[in-house]
Amino acid sequence: MFRNTSRLLATIMTNPLNRERGLRAAISNPRVSEEAKQRDREILATEFGDESAILDSENAPMSGRKKSYSTGPSSSTGSSSYAKKTRSASSGNPSFDVSDSLEMEGKDIGNVIRGLKAALSNPNVSKEAKIRDRQKLKDLGQ
Q: Which CA distances in Å does 17 have to 14, 20, 22, 26, 115?
């Protein structure tokens, strides 16, 4: 099963696009040291001709900025308030026409239907939101 793993890994690592993506990801990662980020910026500039990576580092040093991450239900806001915020943000206006938004936003109808069905079985979703979601599913023919 793992016989061809080294060949696959060699193929992935030799792909210049993957290398560039990895360098950019490391530069954006708040857990990577400034020295490593600077080295990666220099590699991007020399190997890939991306001078903007060096310019970005001169204009906006990353060391002074810290990102805060919210991890959802396990964050300090508590699971019930997180669910309410998430659900109310996604439900929008009750008179909102789902079929119009699907065409305008280019959303996959299957994903929308699956999301609505998941909301119906989620105990953290309010009864009012479930009523709206049932109506949306009915409007979609489900």
A: 9, 5, 9, 14, 34
